[in-house]
Amino acid sequence: MKELSSVRQISVLGAGTMGHGIAHVAALAGFDVVLRDLEADRVAAGLGRILENLEKGVEKGKLTEEVRARAVTRLRGETELEAALYGADVVIEAIVEDVDIKRVLFQECERLVGADVLFASNTSSLRIGSIAAPLAHPERLVGMHFFNPVHLMKLVEIVVGARTAPAATALARALGERLGKDPIVVEDAPGFASSRLGIALGLEAVRMVEDRVASPADIDKAMTLGYGHPMGPLELTDLVGLDVRLAIARYLERELGPRYAPPALLVDKVARGELGKKSGIGFYAWRAGKKV
User: Fold this and answer.
1) Do 103 and 145 share a domain, yes or no?
2) Which end of the chain has the lower number of beta carbons within 10 A, N or C?
């Protein structure tokens, strides 16, 4: 396994919400970054979001123009996997939460890179051991669960599978620190630490809306003002995506039992296409990326 000092290029697979955020912080940290997705318009959209967020950083005085410009020169996009992986020292996957699709992707990656390249999955709940099962070198795979928005949130959850090598864990932790994050290390249990706790709070908040305990805004205010949370559980559900939350709940229900069964209201909203911020409506209405 490589040392952090020898890591030059990070290839991020998936240019969506999490992928472009990971690419953003990696470029700011001084790495050459390749952002890859299946379609050119997705890659362009991901790169465009990074540029917008970097510009906002300059406008708010958090970045200098020089730092922004250097980060931009380190970024490039690709649609072909082989081109995206050429020269990679670390591969971070941030695609759909489907264990079979992740397995296939990492198997394809394994045929294209050397055995000393670190593989990391941004999965928020799937077992790392299950994703790594078909790999010739499962010891290279670790979880690196980032939080949205990646360029602002300080946490990264390092998930250690049963076959993950200590060197892979050490590199992932050092990399997380280099990316400006504060890592925690957790074992490969369903939902890890953050998703298991977060989904429990989020599902209970949805049940409270179902039971007409209070409005979504007042339930969220109870947690922000009463408990000091930076964002309420329902607004966070809108930000993450109701469909993502539903998929995690169903997975944890299978793995851990009925206490994670999704409320009917969550199921119904997803069926209606009310997915939160990305669809314009969830527990709140969203216009131009802003809650209204």
Assistant:
1) yes
2) C
Same domain flag for 121 and 217: no
Q: Name the domain boundary from 145, 165, 187.
A: 187
At residue 144, the pLDDT reads 98
Same domain, 65 and 167: yes
Q: For the residues 189-195, what does the mean pLDDT come to?
A: 90
Question: What's the domain range around 276?
Answer: 194-280
Position 287 in a domain: no
**Count of Cβ atoms closer than 10 Å to residue 59 Cβ:** 9
| Last residue in a domain, options 187, 205, 221 | 187
Q: Which of 230, 226, 195, 202 shows the shortest CA–CA distance to 216?
A: 202
Q: 2 versus 181: which is more confidently predicted?
A: 181
Q: Are residues 95 and 116 in the same domain?
A: yes
pLDDT at 2: 87
- Using the Cα atoms of residue 252, residue 255, residue 259 and residue 261 in order, give the sign of their dihedral: positive
Q: Tokens for 124?
A: 């928020």
Whole-structure pTM value = 0.88
On whether both 207 and 180 belong to a single domain, the answer is no
One-letter-per-residue 3-state SS of the chain: CCCHHHCCEEEEECCCHHHHHHHHHHHHCCCEEEEECCCHHHHHHHHHHHHHHHHHHHHCCCCCHHHHHHHHHCEEEECCHHHHHCCCCEEEECCCCCHHHHHHHHHHHHCCCCCCCEEEECCCCCCHHHHHCCCCCHHHEEEEEECCCCCCCCEEEEEECCCCCHHHHHHHHHHHHHCCCEEEEEECCCCCCHHHHHHHHHHHHHHHHHCCCCCHHHHHHHHHHHCCCCCCHHHHHHHHCHHHHHHHHHHHHHHHCHHHCCCHHHHHHHHCCCCECCCCECCCEEECCEEC
> How many domains is the chain partitioned into structurally?
2
